Amino acid sequence: MSTWPQVGAIARRSVIRTSRQPASVIPPLIFPIALMAVNAGGLDSSTDLPGFPTTSFLAFAFAVPFIQGALFSTMNAGTDLARDVQTGFINRLSLTALRDWALLTGQLAGVVVLGIFQVIFYLVVGLTAGVRFESGPAGIAVLLVYGAIVSLSFGALGAWLAFRTGSGESIQALFPVLFVFLFISSMNTPRDLIGVDWFRTAATLNPVSYMIECVRSLIITGWDVQALALGFGFVIALGLISLALASRALRTRMTRT
Amino acid sequence: MEPHDNGIEVEGLVREYKKGPRAVDGIDISVAPGEIYGFLGPNGAGKSTTVHVLTTLLPPTSGTARVGGYDVVKDGPKVRGLIGVALQEAALDPLLTGRDHLRLQATLQGVRKDQRHARAEELLHRVGLADAADRKVSGYSGGMKRRLDLALALIHSPRILFLDEPTTGLDPQSRTALWEEVSLLRREDRVTVFLTTQYLEEADVLADRVGIIDQGKIVAEGTPAELKAEIGRPSVHAIPHREEDRPRIAEFLTQFGEPLASSRDVAVRLREGLGLTDIVRAVDQNGVDVADLELRAPTLDDVFLAKTGRTLEGAAEEAEVTQPEKRRR
Known about the structure:
A: mainly alpha; 78% helix; B: alpha/beta; Rossmann fold; Alpha-Beta Plaits; 4-stranded antiparallel β-sheet; 40% helix; elongated
């Protein structure tokens, strides 16, 4: 029997589940946009700083929702899978001909579909608000691909935690930790303009800075190969590590002979 | 047993949990193709652990088990392809509808695409959920969830069906409906059914043969009639008019047979050759004050009592007290 119909069935379930939970759909769309609007309004004068890369703080801040939305993807993917472990649904799946990797792939495919939906929503809002891409339509296409990879990588991180802990509460507890990574990054100020030494060092060591700067470069710089390479590199590395850990934890969780 | 037979063969099966007692302690079971085998025992006796091993969810610590001719350890995927399983907790997704569940299960079980829809519709009608098929499972009653669980277990037309306490928590009407469905499966589709239960009546009504398990060991096995015949003699149960008369009535009744443990009434297993009339006559002559006197044919609970020294109900309560740790694992 081909495994791809199984992947499709699990992905479909993932999308149906999320779409039937308004609490899983609306906050990832609204909250990042609201935060961006607040920051763009309150920090607009930052653009007067010498060396600030753009005259529009909205364009500068527009990169953040893409990464923040991915954090929600981590939560959704993790919480859904943890619930499957807690309710015994994973046993139901274990008793079918479903292959381990098909479960993980299907679940993450569902996360990617929802991630792309989020990216399109942010793009529509941003473009309507007047944000222009220096990289043009091709940059928007790259951003869609990047959004899919970011969703996949963060979704895999959530899946690992779900299979490892089997607890939705553990996933919820992780959310503030991930947010700390977001705030200790270059989300509101370019790294070279951060005045506090420890903050600048932390933002430089924080991979989230490079993920944001990758998106930001497409909007305000054009084609910055170094920013793109670092952004794609970190997110792909996170994805590969998370997938390996999630696969291993899944094998342990789906104990069947 | 050859592969593709739909029987079950278990020899010396042991399953130990880390730092725990043996949940299953060297059991032997043989279930013939097309038979309904009732696995009866109190909570914590080892029924669900046995089902988990036979359905490939848990590896045995030692011993062998073949399901449909395939070894549950070496041929896990082949076993899973042959069996349908409804576990103790009907693990359903509250956000999916009944039809969503059947569609998902049909795909995962490899039902051909052109047959999935028809098979799902057939099962929805069969278990009486056609009208509720497009409602989310979160709105289903306990009985509806159990029936959906049964439909999911049957989606790929399995030859062997494992039902782990399928009627626990159901109202009498839902319970009877499920019994009828299980009987029909055996009668019309020749499906082999391995059914665990803690209800005597369920085992008595449904099972061709019954295995009674207690503390991981099978203490009796046979047809319900054979098991009850082993006990042979009926029991007499007296309900005192006044609670303070209980000890006197108990002492009085011991002249007719061996006392039986019972919290509700005073009971003795009658000696050979005695009947209810002997007791009634003696009660009358001695002026013993009883509210009610009843003669009962042996039940499977009597079999359990005879084999373990405890009633099924008492054993279940004992398990509640002594095994909370095991249930948490």
